[in-house]
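User: Predict structure, ligand magnesium ion.
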Amino acid sequence: MKKRILTGDRPSGRLHLGHFVGSLQNRVKLQDEYEQFVLIADVQALTDNYDNPEKVRNSVKELVLDYLSVGIDPQKTTIVVQSMVPAIAELTVYYLNLVSLSRVLRNPTVKSEIEQKGFGESIPAGFAIYPVSQAADITAFGADLVPVGEDQIPMIEQTREIVRKFNSLYGEVLKEPEVLVGNFPRLVGTDGKAKMSKSLGNCIYLSDDSETVKKKVMSMFTDPNRLKPTDKGTVEGNPVFIYHDAFNENLGEIEDLKNRYREGQVGDVEVKQKLFVAIEKILTPIRERRKRYESDEEEVNRILSKGVMRGNEVASETLRKVKQAMKISYEFIK
Ligand code: ATP
Ligand code: MG
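Assistant: Predicted complex:
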């Protein structure tokens, strides 16, 4: 039997090139080797978007189109909408008894997000405990492996703790997942900030059209100390060259551009134009697939329905075992 992996995203906007190198590429690769579940975590998205449910709703469709357009294959990967699998919410409630409030609030990922989102004194309780609901996601589908970025490691550690606690209290029911750390570091933003991120407005989105991508690439930050093309430039840490390394398949061209940049023999415009071509080469087939799915809404709905059905099959079986182990399965009540 193939090992299972669980990944997913909160539907709260479109996916960008950071997501592409950080996780999507990996998922397309992993789906051949593993039984993959990809969770569209709308319940989790509501923990910090509860006042904007429209945004979450609209993002669900965007997200599934992003997935299908990068090549996540619904024949190989099960795409599951979280809110349609109530067993996950139910598992969350049971797991909440197995962690202390202070442990949840100590979670470094949550801590930094709370700061970043500026909740102040009014942290929604649902937000604070979302690592517990992630433990429910992971265990509901019996994931052996969870592919994540470095920043997510504390989340999986929390899940492992919950699993161990559950199993020691109620018997060996849950699988303890392993972390699979992706090998791509954080992609910088087009503005050179440490991270391409929706809220920083420095993203190239997978669904951007050609014109938009061109504008974004041509206005990217480069070496701030280089004022004219004849100045010697620095390649290291330079966003345009980081992108060349990430997206340009033509290694010879990258080498040539880097050499000439260091020598002051190439202008930013040429470097950016070549980067634009390289990114377009990646985005063109993605756009084509997106267009195909956009024009076939029924097919997308079928994919989602099938995913939800399979998701419910697996998750409700986990829930059944969990309740039985906890001695709260009342077969005598019909
Ligand atoms: P927001 O601004 O709303 O936080 P975001 O663009 O930072 O949005 P998230 O939804 O926070 O995106 O990202 C979810 C996951 O995607 C992260 O945990 C990380 O694994 C991956 N990711 C996001 N941005 C990048 C990036 N620039 N490079 C690599 N991976 C990324
Ligand atoms: Mg973020």
